[in-house]
C-alpha cells in the first residue's frame, strides 16, 4: 500500500472533507488502543491530532513548518491515514511505527 506525505495541516483539513460514511477504526499505538468510529468521529479525531501537530510545530522551533507527520493512502479519496509523532524524527533510515492509524474497516488487515 503506497502512502503520500502531506506537509500541510491545511491540506489534511481539506482531505478530511472527503471522508465518507463507513465503519472506521482508530488506533493509538502508544496507548495500545483500538476504537471503532463513525465518519464524523474520525473527522473530529483527525482535527484534534492536527491541532496537536500544529502545537508541536509552534513550540519546537527546530521543526520546519513543512515537516511531514501525516501520510494518506489515496489523497483524493482518503480511507487510510498513518500519523507519526515527534519520536519518529531523526536520522533513521526507516520510520518507527506510526503513533496513530485511522482506516476504514475494509483495510483492517492491510495496514501495518
Structure description:
- With 112 residues, this protein is α+β, with helices and mostly antiparallel strands.
- It has helices at residues 9-16, 39-59; strands spanning 4-6, 24-28, 33-37, 70-73, 80-83, 100-104.
- Strand 2 (24-28) and strand 3 (33-37) form a beta hairpin.
- The longest helix is centred in the middle third of the chain and has 21 residues, at 39-59.
* Straight-line N-to-C gap: 10 Å
Counted up, domains total 1
Strand order of the largest sheet: 1-4-5-6-2-3
Largest sheet: 6 strands, antiparallel
**Which ranges are low-confidence, i.e. pLDDT below 50, for 5 or more consecutive residues?**
none
User: Level of helix content?
Assistant: 25-40%
Radius of gyration: 13 Å
Binned strand content: 15-25%
Please count the beta strands (DSSP E, at least 2 residues each): 6
Q: What's the rounded overall pLDDT mean?
A: 90
- Put simply, the count of helices is 2
Q: Specify the structural class.
A: alpha+beta
Any idea what the shape is? globular
Secondary structure topology:
Layout (H helix, E strand, L loop, with lengths): L3 E3 L2 H8 L7 E5 L4 E5 L1 H21 L10 E4 L6 E4 L16 E5 L8
Antiparallel strand pairs: 1-4, 2-3, 2-6, 4-5, 5-6
Helix pairs in contact: 1-2
Characterize this entry briefly.
The chain is α+β, with helices and mostly antiparallel strands and 112 residues long. It has 2 helices and 6 strands.
